[in-house]
Amino acid sequence: MASILIRTVIIYFLLMLALRLMGRREIGQLDASDLVSTLLISELAAIPIDDPDIPLLNAVLPILFILTLEVILSTIKNKSAKLGRAIDGDACFIIYKGRLSQRALRENRVSLNELLSALRSQGIGDVADVEYALLEQNGTISALQSAQTQMAHPIVMDGEVMKKTLSVLSRDEAWLMAELKRRKTALADVFLMTMTDDGKIGLIKKEASK
Known about the structure:
The chain folds into 3 domains: 2-87, no CATH class; 92-145, 2-Layer Sandwich (CRO Repressor), CATH 3.30.240; 152-205, bsu07140 like domains (CRO Repressor, 2-Layer Sandwich). Helices cover 49% and strands 18% of the residues. It contains 8 helices and 8 strands; from the N terminus they run ααααββααββββααββ.
C-alpha cells in the first residue's frame, strides 16, 4: 500500500511539472500536438499506479521523453509559423465581413447548433451581428461583433422548421410559409432563418454545392 502511495505522489508531481512546462491552458485551448501529448502522458501515468509490479521508470522515462519532445516542438512552432501551421493547421474564417461561409462549416464539420452556441457563449445573440468569426487551431470559435442587437431565434435550420421556437414567438408554419413566399424562397432552400423578439427577420439561403 505504501508503495502505491509513493508511486502516486511521484507521478502526481511529475504530471504537475509536465503541465506547468506545457503552459497554463484549459483542455479546450490545447492544440493538436498538446492534446495528444496530454492524453499519452495521462495513460502512461496510470500504468505503474494500476500495477505495482511494473517498474516506475517504465512510466517516468516515456513521460519525460514526450515532455521533451513537446517542448522541442513548441519551440520550433514558435520560430516557424509555416511548420506550426503544418502541425496544428490554420485558423479558418466561418464568417468574413458579415458573410457566413457554409462551405467552411461543411469542410470543418461544424454544425449550425455548434456555431450558434459558441456565439451565445460570447454574449452574441444574432449571427447577423458578427463581422468576423474564426474556427481557431484548437477548435474553439472566436467572434468579433459589428453591432449588438436583440437575440435572434432560429426558426429554420438547414431546411428544417423549428416548431417549438415558432410557438415561443407566437407564430405558426402558415405564417412562416407566407414569409418565405413573400421573399420568393422555398423552405428547402433556407440554410438559416432567424427572428428577433421585435420581429426582425434574418435569412441565409443555401449555397449551391460545388
